[in-house]
Amino acid sequence: METYIFCHKVGDIDTWLKGHADRVRLFAPASNGFRTFQDTDDPNSIVIVIDTDDIEKLGAIINDPKNKHIKDLHTVLEPITMSVEVKL
Question: Its domain of life (predicted)?
Answer without folding.
Answer: Bacteria
